User: What shape does this take?
Amino acid sequence: MAETLIRGAARIRAMDDTPDPADGSDILIRDGIIAAIGPSLETRGEIVDADRCVITPGLVNTHHHLYQTLTRAVPAGQDALLFGWLKALYPIWARFTPDHIHVATQLGLAELALSGCTTSSDHLYLFPNGARLDDTIHAASEIGLRFHPTRGSMSIGESEGGLPPDALVECEAPILDDCIRVVDAFHDPAPGSMCRVGLAPCSPFSVSRELMRDTAILARDKGVRLHSHLAENDEDVAYSLDRFGCRPGQYAEDLGWTGDDVWHAHCVKLDAAEIALFARTGTGVAHCPCSNCRLGSGIAPLRDMLDAGVPVGLGVDGSASNDAANLMDEARQAMLLQRVARGADAMSPEAALRVATRGGARVLGRDDVGRIAVGMRADLALWPVDDVEAAGSWDVAALPLAGARRVRHLFVEGRQVVRDGAVTTVDLPHLIERAEGLVRGLMA
Ligand SMILES: [Zn+2]
Assistant: This one.
C-alpha cells in the first residue's frame, strides 16, 4: 500500500460542492486515491510539507497538438491568420518522424506539468514518415500525465479543395481501420484510467462529410469520445457557409457531432442558437484563449456558454499557435478576455479556476478528477505562496489573478511528477537538447 501525506496546506481550493477544508489541513493519498482530508493525519509513507503552498485540483488541458512543440515561433507563421498560418507550417510538419513526435510530446507534457496540468488531451491529425498515435502514448506514459490522445485525420487535400497538401492526407478506409486499432490497443475506460483514446477528424475543412459521419458512428460503437475544431474564426464560418450551405453548428448536428460524448475546440464564433444547441445536447467546448489571441480569431463567448450550461474546459492549443503551453496562463487569459468583452465582473479568478479543473474534467468525460474530495484520484497541484509572484497577495488562492505560473509539486494518480519545481520522470535538460537538435535539422 503506497501512501503519501501532504501536510499542513496553507489553503486547499478543492473545487468541490462542499466548503473548502480548514487552512492547515492535510491530504492523505493511498494507492493513487485521496484517502482522507483533515487535520493531523498520520502515515508511515512519505511526507510532503505544504505549509507554503496552495493546493488545487490538477488542471485539465482539453485541447493540444503536442507535436507542434517543435515548431514554436516559426517566422513564416508568426503574423498569419489561421489558414495562412497552416499553409506555412504544413511543409515543415510533413518532414516529421516518429522521433520528432516522441520528443515533442514529452517536451509539451513536461511544460504542462510545470504549469499545474495533470490531465491532457492531444489531437494528432497527421502521420508523416511512419508516425503513429502510439508514439504519443508511449511518450506520455513515461512522463506520467493522465493522457487523452485523439486519433485525428485529414482526407481532403489541396487538389480537392481542402487546405492541407495532398502529401499529408490519408485515404478514409485506412483512417477508420487505424482508429479501430488504436482504440482496441490503448483505450482504458476504467476509473482512474491513465489513457483514454478519442477520435478526431481535424476540422470540417480538411475531411469529407462522410468521414465526419462515419467517425461519429464508429466512436459510438466503441464507446469513445469525439473531438474536432469548430467555428474557430470568420474564415472557418465562411468556409462552412460556402461549402456546406450552413453554419458550423448545423453541420455538426447533421453529422452526429453533438452530444455529451463530443467536444469541439475553439467555438469562438458560435451564435446564440449554436450555444443553445450545445447546452441542450451537452456538447463540450475546449476554450483556447491564448491561441485565439495569437491568431486574432476573436473572443469566444465563454460567459454566455457557461451561463447557458455548456460544458467548457481550457486548452493551450498547439504550441505553434500559442506558442506557450502554460495552462494556468490560459486560466488567467480566459478571465482577462471576458473582462475585456464584458467588464471586470464578467469572470472571477475562482470561476476561471473552475473551468480549468472541473470544467475540463467534465469536457473529457471524467468524474474521477477535477476536484479534491475523498475517493477522487490524487491529481493535485501545489502552488507556492512564498515566491516572487505570490509575495504581497492578500488572497493566496486567487491564483489566476496574481499570475501563478509554476507549481512547486505535482501529483498524478498519487505519483509525484514535479518535485521542488523539477520534473521527476524524465531528464528535462537532456530532452531539451534532443529537441534543439531536431529543430536544427528541420531548419536545415
Ligand atoms: Zn487546435
Summary: The radius of gyration is 21 Å.
